[in-house]
Structure prediction request, 123 residues.
Amino acid sequence: MAALEKQPQPMGLTQPIRGRALCITQALITATGAQGHKAALGPTQGAPPPHQRRKEPPHFTITAQGETIGFLVLQEQDRSEYIPTDKELADAKKHSWMHIPRFDYTPRLHFILRGGSPHRASE
Prediction:
């Protein structure tokens, strides 16, 4: 965990979602370490390019009972319709330069697991 936290932008995640990702990662590594399994930092340091991200090597691996599972942590965005407030609507009527966004974007964590026995639900 210390090696991940020392990176300038751990796993290529933005600040709002980074804390949650590091807490989940630490919980996974701590729980598996307490059971005698091994964790290691993977070769991927930051965020993989969008067009190749599902094929990138893992951010970290956990080896349990001779099986190594790679964990790639990605940040994705959910898009929802933006609902303007009454003040925003009033300001938009007053000022022609004001822009009301069409969508809200919410960051979401996505863990991709690779390795072990093949399974349909690998993500």
Residues 14 and 75 are 8 Å apart (CA to CA). The chain is about 30% helix and 30% strand.
